[in-house]
Amino acid sequence: MKQILLVEDDEIMRISLHDRLRRERWQVDAAVNGRDALSLLDQKHYHLILSDIRMPGLGGMELLEWARKQSPLIDIFMMTAYGSVEDAITCLRNGAADYILKPFEMDDLIIRINRIFEMQTVRARCASLEDRCRQEHQEIIGNSTAMRTLLKLINQIGPTDSTVLINGESGTGKELAANALHRASRRADKPYIRINCAAIPEGLLESEFFGHEKGAFTGAHAKRLGRFELADGGTLLLDEIGDLPLGLQAKLLRVIEEGECERLGGTRTIKVDVRLLCATAKDLKKEVEAGQFRQDLLYRLSVIPLTLPPLRERIEDIPLLVSHFLRGFGHKRGMTLSLSKEAMDCLLNYDFPGNVRELKNIIERVSVLSPGPVITVEDLPADLHKAEQKANGAIMPLAEALASAEKQCIVHALAHSGGNRTRAAETLGISRKNLWEKMKQHRIEV
Ligand SMILES: Nc1ncnc2c1ncn2[C@@H]1O[C@H](COP(=O)(O)OP(=O)(O)OP(=O)(O)O)[C@@H](O)[C@H]1O
């Protein structure tokens, strides 16, 4: 329900406006002057302030200035008496959404308020679309050898029509890689349709894939196109392909082999030209051994396999990802955020079972909650405080443990020196040449 703050010192006007606005089913709080309004604004969020300009004490102009500073998203509608139009225009210049001259027709006021609310809905939709667009065009961040190889491969295979099977733990960026493959393809301006095979109940999946005719089953009130048809000419991402039921695996194989499908309850064969991208966190070879996945389908899907390494195997990407996410979340908060060295150490020592998604969520949380622009260890979630976590957790051959510890130390030193090798070598107590050799050995890139 829309919340309006009405600010009017004239009692009769206030009461009649209050009644009229409530009749529109809006929630209305009334303030008798600017000061009264400020204390209400402190306690509650409003979608619109409807305020008189001239009031004793704190007037509408000051209220406007204060409210714009506090929350740029509140719209402010000014009311003013005939003869003070100049004040109203100044208010418009300072960010008011509209003004109306007294005396006015109530219906006129209501129409204008409705228009402001409609604009708010449009703004919210635009913001959510922008968010989606940004997600689809998200950059893949990473400079580790593994990620650079992956980015190169995406550029190589993007323009082909080959089916790609993207494998990797949850949160490693499989969907991001699929988006990049579509963008790099000749189908980039054609439809890009996604379907999460694990999120749709088994009974509905077939109709989601291939569509259905009217009356094909109970509840099929109208004809519906399937995702294969919707993606015709473009790309179809089958996410969580490892969860596809066996029955549907056979049908998918047929579409891949013959390039055609039928709607449920239909008799017509529909030709489809779709580039398939598939993603899964499961080991499909094991699924084949367990009888859960068809071997012939696996062969068809893995024409080009793409593997996203877990974040713990490319810790040198962590500082880059952190800066990238801090920039994004800091921008939303209107602040330039950074991480203290100790906090960065904590992140570098953590295993990230949820991979980049977990890192992103942590940075989002601390970006919102940290009291100042520098995020410290205390701002990080408690389980990250255990810096020795890695060392305690894993049992591995000693040589491997030593190599991993050495790599970690070098990455830390480089992160602390901002990539300056001379300073990093000094911190580590080794020569620059020795550092260079070790970076090569551990495939660390700055
Ligand atoms: N290299 C990266 N650079 C920037 N952001 C990344 C990167 N990798 C992952 N992310 C971000 O992490 C989140 C998870 O990524 P994504 O959804 O692509 O992972 P996924 O492997 O498909 O996960 P799941 O298997 O759980 O669906 C997203 O918000 C994505 O933007």
Structural notes for this entry:
Helices cover about 50% and strands about 15% of the residues. The chain starts with a strand and ends in a 5-residue tail after the last helix. The chain has 3 domains: about 130 residues, Response regulator (Rossmann fold, 3-Layer(aba) Sandwich), CATH 3.40.50; about 160 residues, P-loop containing nucleotide triphosphate hydrolases (Rossmann fold, 3-Layer(aba) Sandwich); about 130 residues, Helicase, Ruva Protein, domain 3 (Orthogonal Bundle). The radius of gyration is 30 Å and the shape is flat. Helix 13 packs parallel to helix 15. The protein is of the alpha/beta class. It binds adenosine-5'-triphosphate (ATP). Adenosine-5'-triphosphate (ATP) binds next to helix 7 and helix 15. One of its GO terms (molecular function) is ATP binding. InterPro entries: AAA+_ATPase (IPR003593), AAA_lid_NorR (IPR058031), CheY-like_superfamily (IPR011006), Homeodomain-like_sf (IPR009057), HTH_Fis (IPR002197), P-loop_NTPase (IPR027417), Sig_transdc_resp-reg_receiver (IPR001789), Sigma_54_int (IPR002078). This is Two component, sigma54 specific, transcriptional regulator, Fis family. It holds the Pfam family AAA_lid_14. Keywords: ATP-binding, DNA-binding, Nucleotide-binding, Phosphoprotein, Transcription, Transcription regulation.
